[in-house]
Queue: 3 jobs
Job 1
Amino acid sequence: MSSTFGTICRLTTFGESHGPCIGMVLDGLESGLEVDLSFIRSLLARRRPSHSFETSRVEADELHIESGIKDGRTTGDPLCMLIENKAHDDKSCIKGFYRPGHGDYVYSQRFENANLLGGGRYSGRETAARVAAGAIAMLALKKKGIELSSALVQAGLETDPERFETAIDNARCNKDSIGGIILLRASGLPIGLGEPIFDKAEALLSHAIMSIGSVKAISFGDLDLSSALSNNQKASGGMVAGLTDGTELLARVTFKPTPSIAAEQNILFQDGTVQSMSLEGRFDAFLGYRIGCVIEAMAALSLLDMWYMRYGR
């Protein structure tokens, strides 16, 4: 199992959904970077559920700094942060079957003694550690004049923001869930980030963002397929020949509907039988208001790694 991402700036996450804590180690950071803890907390707050159609599991996400920060600035040593798990409930985890659309079955086949409680390592809970690390990367990038942002542009088939919550409520009333699309932007990038041929900027960003559990597709640029005339710059998405070109980076990230739904489904049990039943638990009907900060975090970690490859620390 691989839990480390990056070449020079390397992120390792650890912990499980229903374990005592999750955490991260960020190695390869520059020394002397001012760490704004209030900014990290604000990004974590964006990830927490805040709507009635989102999971009822609400964690405080209190940060515990174990190493790598002295007097409010990075030391250059590995930076380690822990986030306690306090709101999990092992009793709510029904054992004996594999949840449809989750990693339960494939993990149990791949790893002999896998911890499947609440999804274990492949739970969305792990993304809190990514967000904490990504917030630090965003602070480092901001110091270099680079800013990231994201916006929800589609919920299910709905593209009118004023009707997003109606589409989500309709899915929830039908005991279902919907996916959507996040628009990611990065401004202030220099010319030349990326490592052609195989580590092009698009490839590295795709690797980072596609590692998020719910993400299923990514495209770059404003893709108008009708003509190249007058559309070349928009279609590039801020990258040409695998290198950033100094213009705004633009990516559309598609995330899937959450697999845990209240509707009755055919469920595979560990004894090999299949039964029709509905799941009980704390489900998200939609991730669009929570996943944007995770996408920003992974993009920031990838871009900072590219910066270090290009310019050093």
Job 2
Amino acid sequence: MKSWGAIIVGAGIIGLALAIELNKQGLRVLVVEKGEPGREASWAAGGMLVDSPAETRRELQELAKASARMYPEFVHELQDESGLKIDLRSQGTLLLSRAETRQSPGGTQQAHDSPLSLAELEPALQELDLQELDLQAGQGDATRFTAQFLQERCVDPRDLTAAAVAAARHRGIDFSSGDHVLDVEVADGKACGVRTNKTRFAAGVVVNCAGAWAGQIGPHPFPTRPVKGQMLCVVMPEKEMVRHVVRAPEVYLIPRSDGRMLIGATSEEAGFDKRVVPETILKLRQ
């Protein structure tokens, strides 16, 4: 039976990046993917490279900061090896948060002022629009927003995964698509390969990068679950109408360099149901 130095289960961006790195270390690598490489969560992501301490669990903050620092070089290498362009933007993020207003003894409202001028940073985002966004979210008229500028990047995940697949193939990494891994095979206490719905593959190292499906792979299943997110892609009236990523409590906006903008996203406990619900998309469009 043919053997590899390492088998990566799952061809999302994590599995692809790991396969490329192991190939650099001299291993012969096989990537086993149940569907089409890069077409699950990596394909559907928004691409915000968040390393804000306020939004990152404490135990992951150091990792998030290190990842953010490494991303430009990572993208550069993938572009160089694949010959494909990746839309990596460095304009930053506007993080909007609620500042509760309250009635003063005289009956007038008091609110925290924005520490940054939204009109200067994003002329398309007028204060009235932000208040309207809050009203649509059902928060009433007793809430306003403050804004914080974050020096973050965002990337188009579809560019990224396409380039990663092309770079991996360019390096001679093997792929087996349409193979659903059922078990990691173990001999003498060590992983020695995988069993799929079609065949078996042997390797000295096996890494499970199957995402939401990872916990279904034997011999030791563990609890994992998918969380469904729906988003809307629109074409802005003009490129760079919105330049920054904008994150508010109920919605985010992610501009792309070609003039598209993503509006998202829901967070739904819907199992592996990937269907788009028209009513949900219409709500995002409002």
Job 3
Amino acid sequence: MGNITTPILRPISQIYRGIAFLRNKAYDLKLLRVGKLDKPVISIGNISFGGSGKTPLVRYIAEKLLAKGFKPGILTRGYHRRRKEDVVFVSPPSEGITSYDIGDEPFMLARQLSGAVFGISANRLRVGRRIIREFDIDIFILDDGFQRRKLYRDIDIVVLDTNRDSEGDRFISYGLLRESLSSLVRADIIVLRGVGSDVKSDELKNKIHRFNTSAKIIETSIEPKNVLSIDGKRVKPISYLRGKKVLAFCGIAQPNNFKSLLIELGVEIKSFIEFKDHHFYNRKDMNRIASLFLSCGAEICLSTAKDAAKIWEMDIDFPLYVVDIDYNFNCDDADLILLLITNIIGKT
């Protein structure tokens, strides 16, 4: 199959690469207009599709800002949502707002970031201006913003997965890249996320330095934080999972990352179900999971926070828990990121 599709997909990938290059060149030459909001903007993005770790970084930075007494506004498109008009609200979301309305990742973040203002729109500039009119906020966090160059940003943070972004230079549909490594010339902070080898990390840093020698490069990892009940109200320590017989399921971009994490935590995976990324669950899915749970010998079911955002209000008749994850920065790097951001707030 690969021998048949490769000659077809490679030229399509090269066309995408050319379009991305021309678009970026047009912004560099100021041929395309860039809009600016009256509050500072921190963009968090990546150069590849799916699973780089940008959404957990949005949560991490927003939580730090909220803890410092700042009020962030989160700007995001809300991929695969079924409600197309702009949605603006203060988290937590009201009963009238669901993951179907705003997308699974924004809904997940909204459940985690009480007090933040959310703007869900394909036009982040428009919804950002609306937020400024209606709310008193200090700063915007632009989710998945690296390619959204029509909105000016004060800091560009790019997340790279050392296990994926260090290999190859293939654009969609032949690979996973949205932009080449040369686009990192625009980045102010580059977060290398993963558990790859030192060799991979060094190779990636050498590639980055070919295009950008001034960006701050920070190496970190995403680690399990605790185990939550599906409604997020009950917490168990990560050690609770060790030795447990588990049925796990997820609908995320990199399901093998979740599976590997569970193995590292010492669980015995009796069955593992993969759904497509951003999958919206229905009653048939839940019945399938419940039936398999009864037959496979598992003690509990595990899933991700992104999946929980779409099923937490459904009737579930099996023990289901969520593995909550978060970034693990060393103190100096965490302080540096927060200092750079709060300094920008202080200048406005």
